[in-house]
Design brief:
It is a single chain. The chain is mostly beta strands. Helices cover 1% and strands 47% of the residues. Strand 26 and strand 27 (301-302) form a beta hairpin.
């Protein structure tokens, strides 16, 4: 993507429009806002084109709704108690895309905009505290969390919660240590906090709460340096990945046990991102670039385009038609667009499913797969909002030694469904003839399966 020209517009807030070529696919593109120095990045997991960026040394946010082709910026009034106070903490509500939370070191409180940044209101958590990080709940509108830094030595970082769009705040019970990372599962049942001791030295811990922060249990990662970021698998929140100064660690049982991920080719991983709708795809970034995995962290590859860059934040989003990953440095914002997958992966990637279709006019194509759970997904043919085929692969081995395949057809166009067991190499095909409405349940689809 080439930036051809920049036009400054003065409206309700200053907008900068960058006339750009069509978005390249699977290539990192510089879509930077006009500010030049950045500190934070946020967006909704379901909207790949809309992101918000916080400025490093001024109370300004930049927002795009078209993937970086145009940017609007707005200044937050009465923001800082010091000159050059930037927006170093940023969150966007998962339901209401116009609800934005902003804060930072030196800010006078949490600032909330309910109109995409046009106007702002300030809601202090505690005048003695400074905002370190903000986290919008991934599933509940208006719920937001903040980690706040006390100004006095010997007092630990605290965790605050608001359930009314940032207007009022309650403090969570004290977590011993300085908070270095925070995440809460989409069902809000389990929260994780990474901590270091005061001044980020000495013992570290990853703590888990299953009772709305009332009590915290220490999990044994066996690391010396603090957890810096925490993410969940996009379909199975029991799968937790944690970045620490000692590497990446993953649990498949909600933190009861852990294994270290190997094959990492960069050190000092600071940020993680899981791509919604693609549970096997994840990104890890740090001071020397970015690596990615397409098999849930089993193997990793270096991204050559961003090699050597210090990435300070990551964001990933998908709407079923396309997915985008954003990587922020202090001086630039990069994005990479990928189309929806034509291959659906079920049961931890063991089964690969593809669909080819042909309509009544002779048009043809491949269905686009979207995973719903580890064993269930669907395909769309013509429009991501119009589901044509739902399918699931069940483990029936305890009953008859086979994996079962069930699909429900919501279309009468001709299609051919192929399911491949990657462990054995065996493949099965089901065909729906043109004009036919049919569903299938095959309890002997893959017999004698190991």
């Amino acid at each position: 993507m080439r930036r051809l020209t920049t036009l400054a517009l003065t409206t309700a807030f200053l907008a900068t429009a960058c006339l750009v070529e069509a978005q390249e696919v699977d290539t990192w593109v510089d879509i930077s806002p006009p500010g030049g120095e950045f500190a934070a990045l946020a967006g909704q997991a379901s909207d790949p084109d809309t992101v918000t960026v916080g400025a490093l040394q001024e109370p300004v946010i930049y927002r795009t709704v078209d993937g970086g082709q145009q940017w609007a910026d707005t200044t937050i009034p009465d923001y800082g108690i010091f000159p050059n106070t930037g927006v170093t903490a940023l969150a966007v509500d998962p339901v209401d895309s116009e609800l934005i939370y902003a804060g930072g070191l030196g800010a006078t409180g949490v600032f909330t905009s309910e109109d995409a940044g046009s106007t702002w209101a300030s809601y202090p958590i505690d005048l003695d505290f400074q905002i370190l990080r903000l986290f919008a709940d991934s599933s509940i509108e208006g719920r937001v969390y903040a980690s706040v830094l006390p100004p006095f030595p010997g007092r630990f970082v605290a965790l605050g919660e608001s359930r009314d769009r940032g207007r009022t705040w309650t403090a969570a019970p004290s977590v011993s240590g300085d908070e270095t990372s925070f995440a809460i599962t989409p069902d809000t049942r389990t929260a994780y906090v990474g901590t270091a001791s005061d001044s980020f030295t000495g013992p570290t811990a990853l703590r888990r709460s299953t009772d709305q922060f009332q009590t915290w249990e220490t999990l044994d990662l066996g690391v010396e340096r603090p957890p810096l970021d925490i993410i969940f698998d996009s379909f199975d929140s029991r799968i937790v990945t944690v970045a620490t100064g000692d590497g990446l660690y993953q649990s498949t049982d909600s933190g009861d046990s852990w294994r270290q991920l190997t094959g990492l080719t960069i050190s000092s991983i600071l940020h993680l991102a899981a791509v919604p709708g693609k549970p096997h795809e994840m990104y890890a970034a740090g001071r020397s670039g970015l690596i990615y995995s397409t098999d849930r962290g089993a193997t990793w590859q270096v991204d050559p385009q961003l090699q050597g860059l210090e990435i300070i934040d990551l964001h990933a989003a998908s709407d079923g038609q396309q997915s985008k990953v954003y990587a922020l440095t202090e001086t630039a914002l990069y994005s990479k667009t990928s189309p929806a997958d034509s291959t659906l992966q079920l049961r931890d990637g063991r089964f690969l499913l593809t669909v080819d279709w042909q309509d009544f006019d002779g048009g043809s194509g491949s269905g686009r797969g979207v995973q719903l759970t580890n064993e269930t997904g669907y395909f769309w043919f013509f429009d991501p909002d119009n589901i044509e085929l739902t399918i699931k692969v069940l483990d029936g081995r305890p009953l008859n030694g086979a994996f079962w395949v069930f699909y429900g057809s919501l279309t009468n166009v001709q299609f051919e469904l192929r399911v491949t067991d990657t462990l054995t190499g065996e493949s099965r095909t089901w065909t729906n003839e043109s004009g036919n409405f049919a569903s299938v349940g095959d309890t002997a689809a893959f017999p004698d399966a190991p």
